[in-house]
Design a protein that fits this description.
It is a single chain. By secondary structure, the chain is mostly helical. It contains one helix and no strands. The radius of gyration is 39 Å and the shape is rod-shaped.
Length: 82
């Protein structure tokens, strides 16, 4: 009842196909394939131009606000003196 049942025709054990690697040999890895399309390059360039334009717009706006603040402060100071 508790005895194992073996197959009627035994199959041969699988062949050992592994080879012993040389520990001093460098590891063989496939070279990574990097492909850059012209669309990706164009997207990066357009993104860079847009971000640069936004940064310039923020800088010009900040300078304009600073100049306006100085002018208004000067005008209010002159009115207080009178």
């Amino acid at each position: 009842m508790f005895l194992p049942k073996y197959p009627d025709s035994p199959t041969p054990p699988p062949a050992h196909t592994h080879t012993v690697a040389d520990p001093l040999a460098p590891a063989q890895r496939p070279a990574p394939q990097i492909s850059v399309t012209s669309g990706a390059v164009a997207a990066v360039l357009v993104g860079g131009v847009v971000l640069t334009a936004l940064l310039a717009a923020v800088a010009v706006t900040a300078i304009s606000v600073a100049v306006c603040a100085v002018v208004i402060r000067s005008m209010l100071r002159d009115q207080r003196r009178r």
